[in-house]
Amino acid sequence: MSRIKFIEAEFHNVEKDRRAIRQRLERFLKERRALERGVVPPEPEDPEDALQWETDLMQVRIEREVQDRIDRRVNRLAERRDAAAGLAHLKREDRRALEGYATG
After folding, report:
1. Which of 41, 71, 84, 90 would suit a FRET pair with 11, their CA atoms being 20 to 30 Å apart?
2. Pick from 28, 24, 14, 32: which is nearest to 75 by CA?
3. What is the mean predicted confidence (pLDDT) over 62-69?
4. Do 72 and 25 touch, CB atoms closer than 8 A?
């Protein structure tokens, strides 16, 4: 039996999306700060070099003020993504009811 798509909407796990966005932003910031401090990026073929790079990144700390800025940006990006998904105009209960049809 073929499936007919009757709704043009994307169903996202909001908390998973927020975690992924936060991790991406934090990793970008840590990589940038590490490079500014003179840490050499890893060679793609060298696993020991990649391990040292990850160790160096773990030592980069993010201040509370910067963490708050990241949190605000994460919230804005998640809200924009939710609005672009095509379901933002619906009530929470209606969105939950439609999630059953996410696979078609």
Report:
1. 71
2. 14
3. 96
4. no
pTM: 0.71
Q: Are 49 and 43 in contact (CB under 8 A)?
A: yes
User: What pLDDT sits at residue 71?
Assistant: 96
Contact 77, 21 (CB under 8 A): yes
Contact 27, 57 (CB under 8 A): yes
Instruction: List, for residues 3-42, the tens digit of each pLDDT value.
Output: 555 566 666 677 788 999 999 999 999 999 999 999 888 8
Left, alpha or beta for 38 (phi > 0: left; psi -120 to 50: alpha)?
A: left
